[in-house]
Design a protein that fits this description.
Length: 416
């Protein structure tokens, strides 16, 4: 298994390009299932999760070809609407095939995702929504078995804000008979990117980016081209790393408007942040100040940036309170950060982080994707060498992270 070795202490300096967003690419790859015509995608990040999704689609009969950041998909031959446990268990986002398969094929068999490192993460809202659209759903031997004639548009209110739940229902509603109104929908920018792609395919989706999304069903969707939006979490991770190391970086190919809440917190920590068309520059002088935060659905502070800010707070001046409201078990990085010398106390969904002047390198273990990113940031500021094990988590969601960090002057290398 690969490991990352980081010799900490060097401030990050220079410029890198941000990749396409993992959490926009995954649902948009599934949107290809809705049409019998080709979908050409640009700016697709080269990530393990993207390859897993392409394998999943391929075994259903979708022709997929990737060349660099371009992916061509053709679901004309879609003949096996099945998502097997072996693939779903490695990537929860596989549930995103359920809505499109049901809408296009009239049936689908999708494994339940099972346990997950960051919390229970059930899929009851996906199921409830599809039932409201007229599907019959049973759970048998760990599989969701869904059947429907043509889905029927309806008005439905989701019990809670769910990103992939909103995406699944939005995709299913595109081919339904009549109008679907999704209330209490997720407002995340990735939902908007998916809606843009669906509309390019001939769908009639409006309101994406607000909490009421309206979908007028159409008979069929056609081929299209779409470019995936920039990854706002990769952007935020590099900004947090630059701030923690007291560096100065410019990120190209991204948009500050995607992460206002994160940029506000970086400024509160003492960083100077400037945005100009398509790039963001951050400069941090001296030690960061602690910033307290509370995660919540977009446009509030994202749960996917919580771990990285805990690493920043670990070396900041002052004491921060970090509250996680989206997932019930997303503090596993706290114990690993403590192995590097951080002073963090957790109780329920709150962590108290007392900043220390410096961390010390040690061997730590990555437990999930964003936890891994927080350990990388901690390793970049720690004295001496940090060894991060189980970095396959990192490869699921960050494209070429060690190359990008090396380009910014970090002493980081992968050991196979
Ligand atoms: N929930 C339910 N029932 C449902 C669906 C969700 O109770 O039917 C709960 C979850 O258990 C959780 C909360 O609702 O407590 C929010 O979960 P959500 O459904 O929004 O999460 P998700 O769609 O599974 C996406 C991202 C995550 C990100 C969350 C929150 C993708 C592929 N994944 O997950 O990204 O943390 O939204 O913003 O878009 C990551 O990239 O590291 C990652 C985990």
């Amino acid at each position: 298994m690969d490991r990352l070795l980081i010799a900490g202490g060097a401030p990050l300096r220079g410029a890198v390009r941000v990749s396409g967003a993992k959490n926009a690419a995954l649902p948009i790859l599934c949107a290809a299932l809705l049409s019998a015509e080709p979908l050409r995608l640009a700016n697709v990040p080269r990530l393990h999760d993207v390859r897993t999704m392409l394998r999943l689609l391929a075994q259903m009969g979708v022709a997929a070809a990737a060349e660099g950041a371009q992916v061509d998909l053709d679901a004309r031959g879609l003949d096996r609407p099945l998502a097997p446990y072996e693939l779903v268990k490695t990537m929860r986002a596989s549930i995103l095939v359920l809505g499109p398969l049901l809408a296009r094929c009239g049936h689908a068999r999708v494994s339940l995702p099972g346990g997950c490192a960051i919390g229970l993460r059930p899929v009851d809202q996906h199921v409830k929504g599809l039932e409201a659209l007229g599907a019959e759903i049973r759970v048998e031997q760990g599989y969701i078995e869904a059947r429907a004639g043509r889905l029927k548009g309806t008005r439905l209110v989701m019990d809670l804000v769910t990103v992939t739940g909103t995406e699944n229902l939005m995709m299913a509603a595109c081919l339904a008979d009549g109008v679907t109104v999704l209330e209490n929908a997720a407002r995340e920018p990735e939902v908007v990117d998916l809606a843009d792609c669906l509309n390019a395919m001939g769908a009639r989706v409006s309101g994406a980016g607000t909490d009421v999304i309206t979908v007028e069903g159409v008979e069929r969707l056609h081929g299209a081209r779409h470019s995936i939006m920039p990854d706002r979490i990769e952007t935020g991770t590099f900004l947090a790393a630059a701030a923690a190391t007291g560096g100065a970086v410019t990120l190209h190919g991204t948009r500050a408007g995607l992460l206002d809440a994160v940029i506000d917190k970086l400024r509160e920590a003492g960083a100077a942040v400037e945005a100009q068309n398509g790039s963001i520059r951050l400069e941090m002088r001296g030690r960061p100040r602690s910033v307290s935060l509370r995660t919540a659905p977009f446009p509030a502070f994202p749960t996917d940036m919580q771990a990285q800010f805990m690493a920043l707070d670990a070396i900041a001046e002052g004491t921060a309170t970090v509250t996680e409201t989206i997932f019930e078990n997303r503090f596993m990085h706290a114990l690993e950060l403590a192995r590097l010398g951080a002073d963090i106390e957790t109780a329920g969904n709150t962590a108290i982080v007392r900043g220390v002047p410096r961390l010390q390198g040690a061997t730590v273990m990555a437990t999930d994707l964003r936890a891994s990113a927080s350990l990388v940031i901690a390793g970049l500021v720690a004295q001496g060498e940090t060894c991060i094990e189980r970095i396959y988590h990192l490869d699921r969601g960050y494209e070429a992270i060690e190359e990008k960090l090396s380009a910014l002057g970090a002493a980081i290398r992968r050991v196979r």
